[in-house]
Amino acid sequence: MRRVYLAAPLFSDAEKEFNCKLRDEIKKTGQDVFLPQEDSNNVKYIKNRQHIIFTKNLEAIDTSELMVAVLDGADIDSGTAWEIGYAYSKGIPVFGLRTDFRTLGDEGRVNLMIERSVTMCGSIQELLNRLKSL
Questions:
Q1: What is the pLDDT of residue 75?
Q2: Measured between alpha carbons, how far is 29 from 11 in angstroms, rounded to an integer?
Q3: What is d(CA 108, CA 13) in angstroms, rounded to the nearest whole number?
Q4: Which of 48, 88, 99, 115 is the least buried, fewest Cβ under 10 Å from its Cβ?
């Protein structure tokens, strides 16, 4: 069982629901999934809340064997982009999931620096197939 860090925006009900659905699908492939919205961002009303969340997420990335990053939207969520860069710098493989059909013209589907840092997947099924083949 691999430990997977699921990097994704988590600021709307729709995003959080999608993240939970994706987490559940990834778990079916035999992976252990760290989902920040449930595993670190559940800190409430503590003086050092931001520090605690940041530290928990950083530790989770450091102990993960791979990352799945949701890349949907007109632009990638800034926190997700930071998590991708950090994982990439640590040599942690990143699978980018982009189900959004918008592109950046002829050059690519997402920002060049992100696209070159991840293994792109265009659907949940493609992502799951890649995870199963590891």
A1: 86
A2: 26
A3: 29
A4: 48
